[in-house]
Design a protein that fits this description.
Keywords: Heme, Hydrogen peroxide, Iron, Metal-binding, Oxidoreductase, Peroxidase. It is an enzyme of class 1 (oxidoreductase). This protein has helices spanning about 1-10, 50-60, 155-160, 180-185, 190-200, 245-255, 260-270, 325-330, 345-365, 445-455, 455-470, 475-485, 490-500, 545-555, 605-620, 635, 655-665, and strands spanning about 70-80, 100-110, 125-130, 135-140, 210-215, 220, 225-235, 275-285, 310-320, 340-345, 535-540, 560-565, 570, 580, 585, 595-600, 625-630, 645-650. The protein is an alpha/beta fold. It folds into three domains: about 70-150 and about 200-375, Beta Barrel (Catalase HpII,  Chain A, domain 1), CATH 2.40.180.10; about 440-525, Hemocyanin, N-terminal domain (Up-down Bundle); about 530-665, Class I glutamine amidotransferase (GATase) domain (Rossmann fold, 3-Layer(aba) Sandwich). A hairpin with a 2-residue loop joins strand 3 (about 125-130) and strand 4. Helix 11 (about 455-470) packs across helix 13 and helix 12 (about 475-485) runs antiparallel to helix 13. The relative contact order is 0.10.
């Protein structure tokens, strides 16, 4: 299967190396430096077809960016099942554990323009295109388990409120402004999503370290036409990890492509990112047996009540060859289905089924976006659709309609029993109304559950996030409304943010009486692995040569070791062995690493000491693991950092390396006292 897609894409690849210049029509050109003129100082002639083609193509290089999810990054990979799901769905790609289904995944931020930063506080898109034997299937997820709104008719409203304000186009890629929080305070169905985005999940450490949630409810249909409601999950094999806010802000300045670079480099280095695919299933007859409406996209299905059944693993193992042709032109749509998967009546999902196609039509220039190589299915396409912008298929024959006798009534539909797609026969009855089910009216119980499920540090981060985001709101009345709204989640939360925002404490002083928790919501309970974590090693000339064996040992634990010094080139150790410097203090920062190992050297100066001290102090402030050995100890000793939790110093400690590994394996040391 993967080979089929690879072969198909190969037919569209071209390498200009060593080739003769031609026009887009294949005409070889003798000149590409000068336009055709009437004399060497005369006007350019309109008949210069080469100039017109070249400049016209340049003028049209940029397609309209996505209204949402404009900033994205993608990669190719494959899905392989652990077990067959034939009991629940007849979808072929979910049947055979021996089959590898090729996929393309695009990660994205939601609000910012294409030129915005990777590490803003935002929801992240996690969209997967499966190239299956039955056609393309798109699973269009986010990294948070819920959404702001319940009905798609309000989608333009939440996005308009969240985008830069129209009178001055400020601010970019952030919710920290008046219109967003005014919308939140006046549309209280948003409460649960806001708790997620104010949590650490709003600033993920890496695309490789975030979950994916379908949010919407779908159906699985098996061969016996029995239906189960289903929600999909991607569970990262590296666990779910995040940045701290100060770190995220600094990374935006140091490396706005931080998440893109992280994913690209991991794949190039052979550290292929992996996620397990899981599904939550509810029998059709159990649809109304829960305290929440299972079709409500502002509600999670708590994993403790409805377990996530892990069914397979996705591996991303190949970067794109061309960002525009693949990542920018890829077109996802939750309506791209295969037999065995169908929709529910989730009102957000129902609206998405129109919106995605409509978006692709204007963004990609017409109805033939399916013929772009990255979107093209690996199975043949036969139908009576014709023409339109950018048509590539050359249809033979004169019949382009159904039914017909001139082509023996082909292409012809095929019965569901033979693989044709047929929607689930759901009984629907009722009056035509503009309304929402009363079962959608509970806006706070799961927001309370989310807050109850957070660890102490996570709660502090949420309070800080509210204080920063709402602190940017100029209208004091809006700030007060936000405080009153979130007193329905936690009076403690609302009271603390009120103090930070300079508004009155909430009028409601009664804490919600729900003690329900979902441990799966807290990152405190996530997987913690050493694999691919980046450790900055600060070295100078004259470093103790024995550190080379220590670094080799750290690499054997799958840590990425990168050398920091005052200049690029080679640094020479006390035994004349050399190491190559990857970064200087000017080109790197501790915020780009997961931990620091301070080594030093004999050739130090005041400037080096200052830079190294600042590097280590910043990592200390961000609760990161820190090791210090040889001359590097002094940078910690002089700043009273040696006794900090998660800080490991040598001082003739023969267990130093093992203790440093243990410190790194914790990822963050939230109990560290910051002063």
């Amino acid at each position: 299967m993967d080979n089929k897609k690879q072969e198909q894409l190969n037919t569209f690849r071209t390498d200009n190396l060593g080739q003769t210049l031609t026009t887009n029509q294949g005409l070889k050109m003798a000149e590409d430096e000068f336009s055709l003129k009437a004399g060497d100082r005369g006007p350019t002639l309109m008949e210069d077809f080469h100039f017109r083609e070249k400049i016209t193509h340049f003028d049209h290089e940029r397609i309209p960016e996505r209204v949402v999810h404009a900033r994205g990054f993608g990669a190719h990979g494959e899905l392989q099942l652990y077990k067959s799901m034939g009991e629940f769905t007849k979808a072929k790609f979910l049947q055979d554990p021996a089959v590898k289904t090729p996929v393309f995944v695009r990660f994205s931020t939601v609000v910012g323009f294409r030129g915005s930063s990777d590490t803003v506080r935002d929801v992240r898109g996690f969209a997967t295109k499966f190239y299956t034997e039955e056609g393309v299937y798109d699973l269009v997820n986010n990294n948070m388990g819920v959404f702001f709104i319940q009905d798609a008719i309000k989608f333009p409203d939440i996005i308009h409120a969240n985008k830069p304000e129209p009178h001055n186009e400020i601010p970019q890629a952030t919710a920290a402004h008046d219109t967003f929080w005014d919308f939140i305070a006046n549309n209280q169905e948003t409460a649960h999503q806001v708790m997620w985005i104010m949590s650490d999940r709003g600033i993920p450490r890496s695309f490789r370290m975030m979950e994916g949630f379908s949010i919407n409810t779908f159906r699985f249909i098996n061969e016996e036409v029995k239906s189960h409601f289903v929600r999909f999950h991607w569970k990262p094999m590296l666990g779910v990890h995040s940045l701290v806010w100060d770190e995220a802000q600094k990374i935006s300045g140091k490396d706005p492509d931080f998440h893109r670079r992280d994913l690209f480099d991991a794949i190039e280095q052979g550290n292929f990112p992996e996620w397990e695919l899981g599904v939550q299933l509810i029998k059709e007859e159990d649809e109304f047996n829960f305290s929440f409406d299972i079709l409500d996209p502002t509600k999670v299905w708590p994993e403790e009540e409805i377990p996530v059944n892990i069914i397979g693993k996705m591996t991303l193992n190949r970067n794109v060859d061309n960002f525009f042709a693949e990542t920018e032109q890829v077109a996802f749509h939750p309506g791209h289905l295969v037999p065995g998967i169908d929709f529910s009546n989730d009102p957000l999902l129902q609206g998405r089924l129109f919106s995605y196609t409509d978006t692709q039509l204007i963004r990609l220039g017409g109805p033939n976006f399916h013929e772009i190589p990255i979107n093209k299915p690996i199975v043949p396409v036969h139908n009576n659709q014709r023409d339109g912008y950018h048509r590539q298929m050359i249809n033979l024959g004169k019949v382009s309609y159904h039914k017909n006798s001139l082509a023996n009534d082909t292409p012809a539909p095929i019965p569901a029993a033979e693989g044709g797609y047929e929607h689930y026969h759901e009984k629907v009855e009722g009056q035509k109304v503009r309304a929402r089910s009363e079962s959608f009216n509970d806006h706070f119980s799961q927001a309370v559950m989310f807050w109850n499920s957070m660890s102490g540090p996570e709660r502090e981060h949420i309070i800080s996030a509210f204080s920063f985001e709402v602190g940017k709101v100029k209208d004091k009345n809006v700030r007060q409304q936000v405080v009153e709204m979130f007193s329905n989640v936690s009076v403690e939360l609302a009271t603390k943010i009120a103090a930070n925002l300079g508004v009155n404490p909430p009028q409601n002083q009664t804490e919600p009486n729900s003690t329900k928790v979902s441990p799966a919501l807290s990152q405190e309970n996530t997987i913690k692995k050493l694999d691919t974590l980046k450790i900055a090693v600060i070295l100078a000339d004259g470093f103790q040569g024995g550190i080379i064996e220590t670094l080799d040992f750290l690499r054997s634990k799958k840590l990425n070791i990168e050398i920091i010094s005052d200049q690029l080139g080679m640094v020479k150790g006390s035994d004349n062995r050399e190491l190559e410097v990857q970064h200087t203090f000017l080109t790197a920062s501790s915020v780009l690493f997961d931990g620091v190992l301070a080594v030093g050297g004999s050739n130090l100066n005041l400037k080096f000491d200052q830079d190294a001290t600042n590097f280590v102090k910043e990592a200390f402030m961000h609760y990161k693991p820190i090791g210090a050995i040889y001359e590097g100890e002094k940078w910690l000793q002089e700043n009273n950092m040696t006794s900090g939790i998660g800080v490991v110093v040598n001082s003739n400690n023969d267990q130093f390396t093992d203790q440093f590994i243990n410190s790194v394996s914790t990822h963050r040391h939230w109990d560290r006292v910051i002063y």
